[in-house]
Amino acid sequence: MVARIKCSTNIRKPYHYNDNKVREGDACLLAAENMLVQVDTHRDKAVLLLEKQVALRPDVKVNSVHISLNFSPDEQLTNEQMAQIARDYIEGIGFGNQPYLIYRHFDSGHPHCHIVTTNICLNKSRISLHQIGKLKSEPVRKELENKYGLIKAEGQNTKTSTINPFDASKVLYGKVATKQALSKVLNAVIPVYKYGSLAELNAVLGIYNVKAEQGNSGSRIEQNRGLVYRVLDHNGQCKGVPIKASLFSGKPTLLNLEKRFLANDVARSKYKDSLKSKIDIILKFKKCSSLRELQYHLKSQDIRLVPRVNENGIIYGLTYIDLKSKAVFNGSSLGKEYSAKAILERIHLTKIVNPDTGFEKTFPLGKGYPNELSKENNSNVGYERLDEKSALTLLMQYEYAATNVPYEWKKKKKRRKK
């Protein structure tokens, strides 16, 4: 069993987090202890009662306690067993006389429950939260493991080191253990694919319903240049708790990924012209009339086309993934004629459609494109029309090496002696 304690200044946040899970069918209320109201029939009054107790000590800023008790996926616990373990845990850490709510969640691959309570007592005293995890929680957790015969938490983290990277598949949130599923995907993608940026890496991870995030603008994660990995649902929305990059084997942190970006940019350069030729041939002969149709024909060549879509559902970029060579390119990395705006023009598309959501917006061809669509291609300079190229020319193109090789990696020419 693993216990996690989070203390905050707002009792409403943990309450509504769990209550919303219940409304969505992803959780159920196991018990409501020391509450003066019937929580099942007066759900809104429960948080008011907690707030009134918190208001007894307005001078105490940290007054909310949110605890999660996590059990091994191999353990089959009934609701009564889990509720009793939670009661014993709360009693052991000194919160037995406090009002608290116990919720069981079903949105993860392992059984777990959440407890919402406050450290403000009815007599206006305050339960100290200083080092509560080390001094109170850990001894109680180990005692409960022995009492109920639970699988011990120690030594469980070493299991992820034996993961076979070829077992990676789409991560289904709530169906499998999150960290183990993420580890499989990261081991199968990060050392194998040749990506040059975090956006290109995310295009590949998205195939497996995974995303790497640097945190919101101004957040502590972003300021410290951290990185977390999250699971996506079928709509591309983040689900569950993010897991820090440093907790995975191989340490896929932002610092280590940036080292790969430079090496990958050189390694993938020999595949650039081959990929461009395949795209050009499909555009030439398949007469695609929609982005979804273009994706279908590229998929037959083992190429995945991943559109990048903003919050309004408008496509502002494209990423190409060559599954054979494992090379990943943003449209702008291949050239302006492979950017989102240029590709939509080349297939004579007047309706810009997000293939995942079905959102579409009509614009006159050649003008009036939204600003988001022009991020990759701000130039109005025209590209060479595909109709002016012959198939033979495309097939016989010389695959030259990329010119953006870093100066330090270029071979120095020997100076001729005079």
Brief sketch in words of this structure:
By secondary structure, the protein is an alpha+beta fold.
What does this structure look like?
By secondary structure, the chain is α+β, with helices and mostly antiparallel strands. The protein folds into 3 domains: 2-148, 2-Layer Sandwich (BirA Bifunctional Protein, domain 2); 166-267, no CATH class; 269-395, no CATH class. Helices cover 32% and strands 18% of the residues. It contains 13 helices and 13 strands. It has helices spanning 12-24, 43-54, 79-92, 132-148, 178-189, 198-205, 220-223, 254-267, 272-285, 291-299, 331-334, 340-346, 391-395, and strands at 2-8, 27-33, 64-70, 100-105, 112-118, 210-213, 228-232, 238-244, 303-309, 315-322, 327-330, 351-353, 360-362. The protein has a 5-stranded antiparallel beta sheet with strand order 1-3-5-4-2, with helices on both faces. The longest helix has 17 residues, at 132-148. The termini are far apart. Mean pLDDT is 79; it is low at 158-168, 350-395 and 397-404.
Could you spell the SSE succession in H and E letters? Answer: EHEHEHEEHHHEHEEHHHEEEHHEEH
At the fold tier of CATH, the topology name of the largest domain is BirA Bifunctional Protein, domain 2
Q: What can be said about the biggest beta sheet?
A: 5 strands, antiparallel
Report the uncertain regions: 158-168, 350-395, 397-404
Strand residue percentage? 15-25%
User: CATH class of the largest domain, anyone?
Assistant: Alpha Beta
- Mean pLDDT reading: 79
Count of alpha/pi helices = 13
